[in-house]
Amino acid sequence: MDHNYIPVISNIDTLADYYFNLGYEHQYNREYDKAIETFSEAIKLDSKNFMNYRQRSSVYKLKGEYDVAIKDITKSIELEPYPFTAYIDRGEIYLEKGDYDNAVKDFEKALEINPTHVEVLNKKIKAEASK
After folding, report:
1. What fold is seen in the domain 82-131?
2. What distance in Å separates the CA atoms of residue 10 and residue 40, rounded to the nearest whole number?
3. pLDDT at 11
4. For residues 58 and 6, what is the distance between their CA atoms, to the nearest angstrom?
5. Same fold, 12-80 and 82-131
6. pLDDT of residue 13
7. Domain 12-80, what fold?
8. Which H or E run includes 6?
9. What is the mean pLDDT, run by run of 10 residues, along the chain of 131 residues?
10. Which residues of 77-113 are buried (b: 16+ CB within 10 A; e: fewer)?
11. Which of 80, 40, 75, 79 is nearest to 59 (CA)?
């Protein structure tokens, strides 16, 4: 990546934000390798921002690279102050991977945060039934 170019866009506070937004655009356009590259740049510039890891995880999931996706979403969970959605995301990755026990555990963690969330309860029931 060329770090000499600094965009002038009013709604972007940092270069890391620029790479995050660019990565999201690549993801939206199904340019997954470019998305991973730009989210990686955002992480290099701001390794404390959980959203950088979460978005890169979602791209790895789309590519079927579940182990790397799990690694990134786990880092997001460590950094995030309210990891409700991240637990759901990781549970869904485990579900797609066929790791139903860990999927159930993550859906249970999400339900500990928000016990009345019906969609998560349904995901947990689906994971339990898939065992």
Report:
1. 1.25.40
2. 23
3. 52
4. 26
5. yes
6. 73
7. 1.25.40
8. none
9. 42 82 94 98 95 97 98 97 95 96 97 95 94 85
10. bebbeebbbbbbbbbbbbbebebbebbbbbbebbbee
11. 40
User: Which residue blocks in 46-117 are alpha helix, DSSP H?
Assistant: 50-62, 66-79, 84-97, 100-113
Q: Which residue has the tokens 């993801």?
A: 27
Output the pLDDT for position 12.
Answer: 55
The answer to whether 61 touches 96, Cβ cutoff 8 Å, is yes
How far apart (Å, rounded) are the C-alpha atoms in residues 23 and 77?
20
Which token pair is 55? Answer: 């978005």
Task: Give the total residue count for the chain.
Answer: 131
Quote the pTM value.
0.86
